[in-house]
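Researcher: Following up on the earlier apo prediction. This time include the ligand. It's pyridoxal-5'-phosphate, with the SMILES given after the sequence.
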Amino acid sequence: MGLSKTLSESDVSLHSTTSYILTSPAKYKMPENSMPEDMAFQMIDDELRLDADPRLNLASFVTTSMEEKAKRLIMESLDKNYVDMDEYPATTDLQNRCVNMIANLFNAPLKDGEAATGTGTVGSSEAIMLAGLAFKRKWQNKMKAIGKPYDKPNIVTGANVQVCWEKFARYFEVELKEVKVREDYYVMDPVKAVEMVDENTICVAAILGSTYNGEFEDVKLLNDILMEKNKQTGWDTPIHVDAASGGFIAPFLYPDLEWDFRLPLVKSINASGHKYGLVYAGIGWIVWRSKQDLPEDLIFHINYLGADQPTFTLNFSKGSSQVLAQYYQLIRLGFEALGDLEPIYTFEGTYDINALGYREIMENCHYLAMVVKEGVEKTGRFKILSKDIGVPVVAFSLKDRSRYDEFKVSEGLRRHQFIVPAYHMPADAKHVALLRVVIRGDFSRTRAEYLLSSINAVLKELDELHPVAAIQENGHHKLSLNGVANGNGELPPAAAVENCHHKVSANGAAYGNGGTDTENGQMTDGAKCY
Ligand SMILES: *Cc1c(COP(=O)(O)O)cnc(C)c1O
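Model: Understood. Below is the ligand-bound prediction.
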């Protein structure tokens, strides 16, 4: 491929360039002239290879694999702007079917043939902005009607909310009242939440699938005690459920769990189509319990084909592809597969998604989460912070953080190609750090096994880098083992007390003074004295 003469000098690192290889890509200013399409493609393609492999990105809930036919629908609809409902009534119709299906999945009290109230969004974040605005407007209308001030709305959530709630609060000027979490209880305590509710509370937002550890909040208990408070005060405070991750888990795995519109105070629910809805990034859903829960004055009406098309979104234009892909997934997979199916593992260890429905896919995710959880437990090094019932994630923290922390484990896993984030819990458990593995629909047994062997390898590497210090016994330190758990499956605490002499060991061999990190035998860096 020859270099186009149209490339500007400033964007060409070497004048003798004959291909994209010797050309540096434009970074600040648009190039003055065009270039051949192959060249533009190769330049970008080359850079993108530095990105991680999305399938090994265990940090994200967002779908990383879809079927060929779904991809075809996506590609074929890239030229359709969703907002042109007049021109694309069929696309609009398919979105409305998705809204109906999801509202029914969440047990909206709809009569036969009654259309559900809701809309597709770019993701749960937009869905939450819309839900929050609806609550705020409803509350304002109510306060105006009774002649009370309506300038200090607040919303009650757990401190474990996803960042989009903080965005909503800041962008739309609603005070966020957060129920603090505490060690060993990492979600919103419904009792404390209801205590924080006052006359200016526009809603209490519960999370089905806490971002931090996947745990479901107790929406039923929240509903019950909030009903009681509403009865006493006459306030009528509603509930929103942020089911971004759990909305496509609970209906399939825990159909008897009451978290949705079966609870009378739940007025709206969001879910991310691009998480366990199994669609690529760019789709979320918001559904309201009934038409009455979405204030009329927030809805814009568009008429097409004689029918009234209400719209309530932040964005005007957006692609149609994700909407169509969601409808494809819903009808293609269905609630469950026909007949009893054992998970099918193919040669490469991935189950055959073709044979499965949403339920089996979620069951497989849960099963693989348990495989990972057990493997992580088996190291003897971690405490599990996720629950067996919840979104299929495995969250865990080190039992012994004296030699290295979760961030070091995360870094180590990155060198094994896996992205497993480390982060801190929210207030008041900020001292707790954890690692989180999200099990998505494209996870597999093979990958679970690779992940576990990588975790073990990383622990071994870190153990060697940060030798186990001795156990303190009467000011004297005994040697400990080669990173292997002692009798009770736990590592001995690392060394020890200041002003005492530390010996450390690695591979069972004692170091002399020179083996410790400093000349006087004191441990440094990560081996704090207790
Ligand atoms: C992912 C997530 C969000 C944000 O959803 P997007 O679809 O990424 O905008 C909000 N809340 C919770 C609980 C989440 O897990």
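Model: The CA atoms of residues 336 and 357 lie 4 Å apart.
Researcher: Noted. I'll compare it with the apo version next.
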